[in-house]
Design a protein that fits this description.
The chain is an alpha/beta fold. Helix content is about 45%, strand content about 15%. It folds into two domains: about 220 residues, TIM Barrel; about 100 residues, no CATH class. One of its GO terms (molecular function) is monooxygenase activity.
Length: about 350
């Protein structure tokens, strides 16, 4: 089996420069272990888990794989320091973040030997976390699913590569060996994929929902601000269409209702939810309306991705969904991507005279 060695594989101790992103409700122990056992880097999604659920998920993942894996943490969560202590105690290899973690948290993780890889959406953010000591960054272009920005990977990636000297992992629009070869040609150290891993056999998303994804074309996603107030790429559904045409009052009422459901499900106190809201307000440019609407996200995603209720839920998805038509195992997926990338890199080399 061919392998490709990059700054990412050396940094983390993995066989292949392929990362499975920390998708809420999707990236649990089975998918993460499947990815890591296949030689990639699996990342647990902890934003939709309580602290105790995260502890149990880490323990479960360790029973399924002895390979390196990571945990994605919401940097603005009030219990982020406790979760970081858990990662250190459990010797988790990688801590990834959806927002820039505080400089002291990065220092604490690095001192304990944990690799710190924040996800960023602009070159200036990459420079900031690099100056704070981040070991690498994941940069997602606008093609990517979930929270996303307006700039395509083909332009965002080189802008970040020019701005920092640490390894850069490319995300947004990747699904095969061509993409990996192209990312490496740009100078990236690997690729990260969400939607592609959601559509694997190890993914616990209900089969009926996977079929919903597989039936979609390249034009079948929407970037909506009505889900949680931030640009969020999702599959076109009746619910999304109705949200897009709804007024702000309806969105706030739905968000308040979902906040109550999320509180009941996680056992969080209202004071903790308010603290999290204040932290989000402080660490970003969100309005209070956007903060309140953020309560929508966990419950709307859970309805679709866990409960299989596509009429009541939202299905985060990258544009790449329009090019996917199968449900491979993580091993078959990663092996195929790497083998194809090696062939394409060799073919490029043969063009030289």
């Amino acid at each position: 089996m061919s392998s490709i060695r990059t700054a990412l594989t050396e940094l983390v101790g993995i066989e292949h420069p392929v990362v499975q992103t920390g998708m809420g409700w999707v990236a649990g122990p089975r998918l993460v272990a499947g990815t890591s056992n296949a030689g990639g880097l699996g990342i647990l999604a902890s934003a939709t888990m309580t602290y105790d659920e995260l502890a149990a998920a880490i323990a479960k993942t360790k029973t399924l794989t002895d390979k390196p894996f990571g945990v994605n943490i919401r940097a603005d969560a009030t219990d982020a320091p406790h979760r970081i202590d858990l990662l250190i105690r459990e010797k988790v290899r990688v801590a990834s973040f959806a927002l820039a973690p505080k400089q002291e948290l990065i220092a604490k993780l690095k001192a304990a030997g944990v690799v710190v890889i924040p996800s960023i959406g602009a070159a200036k953010h990459a420079k900031k976390v690099a100056s704070w000591g981040a070991d690498a960054v994941i940069v997602q272009g606008g093609e990517g699913g979930g929270h996303t920005g307006p700039v395509a990977t083909t332009l965002l990636l080189p802008s970040v590569l020019d701005a920092v000297d640490i390894p850069v992992v490319a995300a947004g629009g990747f699904y095969d060996g061509r993409g990996l070869a192209a990312a490496l040609a740009y100078g990236a150290a690997g690729v990260a994929m969400g939607t592609r891993f959601l559509l694997t056999q190890e993914s616990t998303v209900p089969d009926s929902v996977k079929q919903e994804y597989l039936a979609r074309g390249l034009q079948d996603t929407t970037v909506s601000r009505k889900v949680d107030g931030m640009p969020h790429r999702v599959l076109n559904t009746e619910l999304v269409n109705s949200l897009e045409h709804s007024g702000s009052v309806r969105g706030l009422v739905a968000a308040a209702r979902n906040a109550s459901k999320f509180k009941a499900m996680t056992g969080m106190k209202w004071s903790t939810l308010v603290k999290d809201g204040l932290a989000m307000r402080k660490s970003s440019d969100r309005s209070w309306q956007q903060i309140i609407m953020a309560a929508n996200t966990p419950m709307l995603l859970k309805a679709g991705l866990v409960d299989g209720d596509t009429a009541a839920g939202v299905l985060a998805s990258g544009q790449v969904v329009g090019l996917l038509d199968d449900l491979p195992t993580c091993k078959d997926l990663i092996d195929g991507i790497v083998a194809d990338a090696v062939k394409r890199i060799d073919a490029l080399g043969a063009l030289r005279h």
